[in-house]
Amino acid sequence: xxxxxxxxxxxxxxxxxxxxxxxxxxxxxxxxxxxxxxxxxxxxxxxxxxxxxxxxxxxxxxxxxxxxxxxxxxxxxxxxxxxxxxxxxxxxxxxxxxxxxxxxxxxxxxxxxxxxxxxxxxxxxxxxxxxxxxxxxxxxxxxxxxxxxxxxxxxxxxxxxxxxxxxxxxxxxxxxxxxxxxxxxxxxxxxxxxxxxx
Length: 198
What we know:
This protein is of the alpha/beta class. The chain has helices at 53-66, 77-83, 85-98, 133-156, 162-165, 171-180, 194-197; strands spanning 14-20, 29-35, 69-75, 106-110, 121-125. It has seven helices and five strands.
């Protein structure tokens, strides 16, 4: 496995940003922003999708402890329906950056688009979570934070199988929507089921 890069540009305070939950049918989209120390190394950190939930939870503790600063941004299902998922993803990242205790000089964003953040340059990196440590670390924090939120929602609105799907459009999740109807945290602008939308 290729080692992830620690820096995009030497000498700058860089923050990595990524989100989780963009493709879900229910719940919020969550973003994280992580500033790692200049000489930070951890060969276990990678794109959160390539790690088991147990490994993500172990790394979450390390990232929170070792990072110079981290922030979490949450955008609700209602906001997603109002501004669309792309803008909601950018807003979640902005909120995560807002929550940082250290001001970054460069934002590394996973993906190919971003709404500029006032006063800080950014660079978009496709598959950045498998190329740069700070983005991978952000992907882990975003995923673990969102999973915990969805497990709480699963207790409040049972029967949708969110303990395994985390709100993603699995066959079981869609079958539960068909059987039980839409929950209070479903994204109504998403194609949940043709019958439900119509």
